[in-house]
Amino acid sequence: MAGAGILQDIPKMIRLTEKVVKSTSLPVTVKTRLGWDENSLNIEEVAERLQDIGIQALSIHGRTRKQMYKGEADWTLIGKVKNNPRIHIPIFGNGDIDTPQKALEYKERYGVDGIMIGRASIGYPWIFRDIKQYMATGNIPDAPSIDERVEVARKHLMKSIEWKGERVGIVEMRRHYTNYFRDLPNVKEFRARLVSEMESAALNEILDELKAHYQEMMLHTEY
Hints:
By secondary structure, the protein is α/β, with parallel strands linked by helices. The protein folds into 2 domains: 3-117, Aldolase class I (TIM Barrel, Alpha-Beta Barrel); 146-220, Non-ribosomal Peptide Synthetase Peptidyl Carrier Protein, Chain A, CATH 1.10.1200. It contains 9 helices and 4 strands. α4 (100-110) packs across α5 (127-137), α6 packs antiparallel against α7 (166-180) and α6 runs antiparallel to α9. 22% of the residues are buried.
């Protein structure tokens, strides 16, 4: 019954959340889904009950727990929660936002106070910058340069090692290289080296080589 499992027992979910709210002077927020499955799409009721026991904001993922990340996120119920006249806390929508255009479209269509982004930021943390600029100006910034990509990937690697230790940090970083460098031509050789190396110093050298290689390529062609 951990995590989203608590959606199978809403009264217990409310009791647990109320205990947390009463135990602290800090604002308590909740992130949840539309329901456990298609037969329990009870987020409208849940939102009211959570607000009534004192949460300060609610983020809603537009899928059920049974769906996991399959199918398209359904924002219609998120919109109904936001536009419920009884709801006065901020409501944040989550699910399938992967472009600045979609972020603005969904914010305006459903009236949410903000948008939460998860998977679309993996390997592309610049999405937050892109969305902010698009909402403010209608323009999307240029794609990150090879220098930016390499330096952010390097920082990610170093923070991963700092947090998890060298071995685990390096192994867990491997799945991210594809995302950081996914649209570069003929990057397979560099990626193969990055996912097989176990020394941080050697990984930094490979990243330097990768950056130099694509900087040189840019002098002669566009990619």
